[in-house]
């Protein structure tokens, strides 16, 4: 079997050790990092993503695969820039100020990583200043915000206003999510996108970055 | 045999030991003092020989005879599937569900209209039951109106045995038809002795409240006892009409009716595989409808199940049935409550799944939705393990405050122990909207259609099929 195929299968099975070892091996065989990324790691995640959509596998299995992909990514990440392989996109994500709910945002972050995006997870209780700081620092394409509480979701609006005031609105797409969030709320506060669940968030990011 | 059928949490008792005794002793008093009217002279003769006090058709049964019969209860009744493999162990705390029988109407799956039942419907219900995981046995659900009405019961049996491998609980119009159906079952099982050894059938027959053993019902009970084949003997007492309006009175009278049949069966053949059970049905005094899903009926079923446990007899119980005229919110909620309660009480052979319209109409949607509810309830009655692995103290310590469990091996290993539904909606609003705004009824209808259009039950051997056809034809004159 082709080593890239083996990497993809390792990712699909969620076997971090084998993905790590195989990626190392592939690098010694002078296979390009672009190929390892797209035909190995991402290809494996694509299969698992498709299975997830068809209800054949569930979130824990997808996340284990994402973890395995990360094991390979760690090795090729430093080489990507040198090889001129463009990142699929950079995402800065966090739960807004006043809110300590972490898990939903974390799932989205892990799935995004699994889909090949570079994700900076700022954690919970994130202020607008911190969001802005990292959007600039990382030159982020996407800013993702999460809130579980109806009392904290209003802070999303403040962050978007801060993004506008800093003249960053053209550079970064702002997306929001969380149990109380609706499509109409996203429109109301002028977010660029909203997804009702983690899996659709990945599609949303892909769509936004195509444009 | 799967573990899921067994109740793994404490059984719901609604009668204390003292109350069970009181109901039992009061029942003995009714049998001694009032007795039952037995319309079949041969049965009266048997009761007489057994030591009962006879006045014409009135049979008064002494306490010691009832106690003797109750010492003969079989510890377990095993019902096999069509192929003779054990399918249901009717015993303490094993719960199995199946359809009901003989509704004149059905809701057409494709038009949504209520219409009279035809033979094709019986075949279709059999197919659906054959397919559904949580349906363990089959009753014919409807009365076929498009065949010779004198032997429609025989047609029902032929349809059921052709379209499903699951055990069958059947009804028979009279003794002659019963003999024919048993003959057919013997053909399928591969002979009389084989059928007796691993029966895949049970007859449903009943006393008539108040306190009567009708001629034909008694003849049917006697034949099953003679052949040592499983028989369900279940009164359908309407409180305030054919029994006292109070649950306690209804319970005692219904119990007396069942035990009269049980004594008769044991006088014929000790240890006859007899299945206990009954409906104590409240009459709605505004409409005169006998309600299938009243709180009182549910309470009485739970009490009857306690009595069955007390006697160590299997319980024929009720679930998945509704008084609603159509499949709707009421039908789901009534069906679900009955499923939960009959499970918690540990009813064994739980029937009437799919009944709506107070037992006058069959609904495919009600069957499909009940199948989901049963899955959900089984997850509850399965309980949960408490051991080092499941308490996960090391893991709790390793993950610590603020961590996450989603990517731990422990989660991956155990998350599938949670029960997932096929039809119950757990999607965010927008996604539900995108998927066509389908409610539960629409999804159930689609699933039923899918089963009918795609599921092919394992066919009966050609030779057996032809033999059954021949028997049916010989009776169709």
UniProtKB/TrEMBL annotation, chain A:
Annotated GO MF terms: cobalamin binding; metal ion binding; methionine synthase activity
Keyword Metal-binding: yes
Domain B12-binding N-terminal stretches: 1-88
GO CC list: cytosol
Gene3D superfamilies named among the record's database cross-references: Cobalamin-binding domain, Methionine synthase domain
Entry-linked InterPro entries: Cbl-bd_cap (IPR003759), Cobalamin-bd (IPR006158), Cobalamin-bd_sf (IPR036724), Met_Synthase/Corrinoid (IPR050554), Meth_synthase_dom (IPR036594)
PROSITE patterns recorded: B12_BINDING, B12_BINDING_NTER
GO annotation (BP), single: homocysteine metabolic process
Keyword presence, Metal-binding: yes
Boundaries of every B12-binding domain copy: 88-211
Family the entry assigns: Belongs to the methylamine corrinoid protein family.
Protein known as: B12-binding domain-containing protein
Organism: marine sediment metagenome
